[in-house]
Amino acid sequence: MGSSTTKPKVLALGYPDYAGDAYMAEFEKAFTIDVLKPSDRKGTLEGVAAKVKESGPYDALLVLMGIGPYEPFDEEFLKPLLPQCKILVSCSAGYNEFDVPWMTKNGMWFCNTRSAVSEPTADMAIFLILAVLRDTTRGEKQAREGKWRGALPPTRDPTGLTLGIVGMGGIGKHLARKAQVFNMRVKYYNRTQLSAEEEARYGASYAKSMEELLSQSDVVSINCPLNEKTVGLIGEREFSQMKDGVFFINTARGPIVDEEALIKALKSGKVARAGLDVFDGEPKINPYFIECDRCTIQPHLGGLTDGAWKAAEIECLENIKSLFSTGKPVAPVNTL
C-alpha cells in the first residue's frame, strides 16, 4: 500500500467528473489521482506502461464506463501495475471483461459496482417493454415517412400480461417493482428463490424451472449476469418453449442470447417483437436487428445516465478509501 508519508496514488482511466467537485476535493486530500485518457487497446496499453514508468508506481486503478475499445483487463493490461497496485475498481456492474482469477493470484482486489446501474437498467427494460408492446418503432417509422398510422393494427396493453424475469438480482427486483405500476403479473426464474417476504414486496412468483417461466410469460426479460454458465442461455430450445407471439427483452448482455436463434424466432413470428439494448459483438450489431422494424434497439444505454455514473464513480472511490483505511474494500468480488 502507499507509504505512510505520501498519499496513495490512483491511476484513473479518465477523470471521475460525475462524482462531483465537493466529493473529489475531499477524496484528493487523501489520494493523488493521475489521469490517463484511454484510446484503443494498443494506445491504452502503451499509455498505462508509460504512466507507470514516468509517474508510478500506483496503488490503485480506477476504470470508468465505456471500456469497449480497450478491454479486456488481463495479464497483458495489468502486469505493468504490479507489484504496487493492490486494487482495481470498475464503474461497470458486469465484469466478464476482467480476469479476476489472475488479479486474485497476484494479490489485487477487484470491485465492480453493485447497484449504481441497477435502477437505470430496469428503467431501460420498462421502456423497451412498453415500446414493443405498443409497437412504437413501426409507429415512429410511419410518422417520419409521412404515412401517419398507415395500416398499423391495434397494439397490446401491459395490463394483465405476465412478465417473466430471468435473473432476480438488483435489476430484476427493480423491474418487478416497476412492472406492477403497469398492472403486469410478475414471475421470475433465479438460481435461488427469494424469501416469501421479498416475493410479496416485489409482487413476484417463483418459477421452478426456466421452461415453466418461458411457457407462461407474455413478455420475457433477460436480467441475469453474463458468465460461463449463462453464455447462450437463451437459444432455439428456449425460444421454442415460449408462447407464440411473445415479446422479448434483453438489457443484460448480448452473448446470453443466441442471436441466430432470436432472428429465427422473429422471422417465424414466435417472437412478435424484440427490445434490445445489448448485442453479441457490440458495438457491431447484426444487420437484421437494424433492418427489422419489429426490433426496438438501443446502443447499450441501460446504465448511461448522469445519476448512475455519479453513483458508480463514488462507489468505486469508496472501495479505494476503505482499502486504505481498513485493509479491505467495502464490496470486493474476490477474496485475498
Please tell me about this protein's structure.
- The chain is an alpha/beta fold.
- 37% of the residues lie in helices and 15% in strands.
- The model has no long low-confidence stretch (mean pLDDT 96).
- The longest helix is centred in the C-terminal third of the chain and has 21 residues, at 306-326.
- The strands form two sheets. The chain has a seven-stranded parallel β-sheet, with helices on both faces.
- It holds the Pfam family 2-Hacid_dh_C.
- This is Glycerate-and formate-dehydrogenase.
Helix/strand class: alpha/beta
Unreliable residue runs: none
CATH superfamily of the largest domain: NAD(P)-binding Rossmann-like Domain
Count the domains.
2
Instruction: Say how many strands there are.
Output: 12
Write the CATH architecture name of the largest domain.
3-Layer(aba) Sandwich
* Rg: 22 Å
CATH topology of the largest domain: Rossmann fold
**Count of DSSP H/I helices:** 13
Strand order of the largest sheet: 8-7-6-9-10-11-12
- Span from first to last CA? 15 Å
Q: Overall pLDDT, averaged?
A: 96
The H-and-E topology, N to C, reads as: EHEHEHEHEHHEHEHEHEHEHEHEH
**Helix proportion range:** 25-40%
Strand content: 15-25%
Shape: elongated
Please summarize the sheet with the most strands: 7 strands, parallel
